Request: fold
Amino acid sequence: MTLTLSQAQNILQVALTHARQAKFRPLCIVVLDARAAVIAVANEDGTSLKRFEVAQGKAQGALAFNMGSRALGVMAVERPHFFAGAAHAVGGLIPVAGGVLIRDGEGKVVGAVGVSGDNSDNDEAAAMVGIKAVDFVADGG
Reply:
């Protein structure tokens, strides 16, 4: 199964609706396919500069290491020398919650969502709500 443009757009819409209802700060949401190509992006009015790069880095890191960016944050603390090298190799890697893998029903990674703009827990929550809304499995790590 692959991630379609329609599904990616639905992920964005549901995540943004959740964020507005919860009164989160303005978000940038990036949806990547399994190759890490940008499928859809939304940058709400009022987001700060570089939110796209942060959201993309959370999602790319999740894809690069096959784990959510929350788990990457744990790895960065536990194995700082490895992580420093990995961050250099991958580039733009952001090791905090908000990068969530999108898995199909069989566990195959079909993409990732990165969210930036509020605190990391809220960023991750928005991503997970969006992913679940299109009947995929959200893996925040």
